[in-house]
Amino acid sequence: MTRQIAVVAFAQSDHRRTTDELSEVEMLMPVLHEVLARTGLKTADIGFTCSGSSDYLAGRAFSFTMTLDGVGAWPPISESHVEMDGAFALYEAWSKLLTGDADTALVYAYGKSSPGSLRDVLTRQLDPYYLAPLWPDSVALAALQAQALLDAGDTDEHALAAIGARSRADATANPHAQLNGPVPQGDYVVRPLRTGDCPPIGDGAAAVILAAGDRARQLCPRPAWIRGLDHRVEPHALGVRDLTDSPSTRLAAERAGAFERPVDTAELHAPFSSQEVVLRKALRLGEEVVVNPSGGALAANPVMAAGLIRIGEAAARIHRGASDRALAHATSGPCLQQNLVAVLEGDPR
């Protein structure tokens, strides 16, 4: 890469089970104001804006155009949108900055899962001919993956419960988390997954600012430099995949340079406890790596923003000196179908 790009600011909302009193714009605007304030930038200073969201969650076509009201109608902006998690919008913005067409970028994402049945909505991600007509919901498919891990001897229910407990204990230090502290493992939702193995349903938003080269150093005392970024996809048909492994995550990590040197922190987008098992194996993460110190998606999982939050949380640890080299992961689709890996580093101290 001829240009060095960094995350220079990150902000997120307080994630809540319902935000009936707020529209998407009202939920998003404080986050946008906060992330700009962290750098002192104004809308006119942003070279490119990219967002991630889903019309299926909003229940209307081109819903993302409404949230542009939160960015501002003036001055005119260079803008794009991806119908995916905001982490993939960040990939587009990163690519834009690499070309030299802009020096700064605003990336934001949001999702309100509370108005409808999220488990039913997510079936629309499935193959429309063979799988979607059967309406297998997201928890049932994750349970198939978890059972495959149990059958392979890769984990057991006690180990899965420990992942959930650790994540929510770590979230006590995260003021934005929806769940934190002791959370009962609860009853089975779909065997072998219990309530404690599943993510909370909630609403939330997040935003980051990217900047290139010297501009990044002007905006942030310790930028989180993106040393590598890549994303890959598994076959669409679940029946041809080994659900106990994630080759796309491994390949994305390899291409992003994650295996060149050890990382000290990993923010993994693992909405289900069993998926952390798969990701740890694919990313070769040992016990010395701090995994999801923010609590991860088991503490707050605003759909379409949770992946961007993983990048933001990893970058924030570098900003405040808690990490020197961090890995961030985002996923989309059933059973870790699409996976993005970013490697972030701070300047030597």
Verbal overview:
By secondary structure, this protein is an alpha/beta fold. It is built from eleven helices and twelve strands. It has helices at residues 24-39, 55-58, 64-71, 86-98, 118-121, 138-152, 157-170, 213-219, 247-256, 273-283, 306-319, and strands at 5-12, 48-52, 79-82, 104-112, 188-190, 193-194, 203-212, 224-233, 265-267, 290-291, 325-332, 338-345. A ten-stranded mixed sheet has the order 3-2-4-7-1-8-12-11-9-10. Strands 5-6 form a two-stranded antiparallel sheet. α1 packs across α3 (64-71), α4 crosses α11 (306-319) and α7 (157-170) crosses α10. The longest helix is centred in the N-terminal third of the chain and has 16 residues, at 24-39. The chain is globular, with a radius of gyration of 19 Å. The model has no long low-confidence stretch (mean pLDDT 95).
Helix/strand layout:
Blueprint: E1 5-12, H1 24-39, E2 48-52, H2 55-58, H3 64-71, E3 79-82, H4 86-98, E4 104-112, H5 118-121, H6 138-152, H7 157-170, E5 188-190, E6 193-194, E7 203-212, H8 213-219, E8 224-233, H9 247-256, E9 265-267, H10 273-283, E10 290-291, H11 306-319, E11 325-332, E12 338-345
Q: What key attributes describe this structure?
A:
single chain; 349 residues; alpha/beta; ten-stranded mixed sheet; 33% helix; globular
Q: Which structural class is indicated by helix and strand composition? A: alpha/beta
Low-confidence runs:
none
The total beta strand count reads: 12
Distance between the termini: 23 Å
With strands numbered from the N-terminus, the spatial order across the biggest sheet is 3-2-4-7-1-8-12-11-9-10
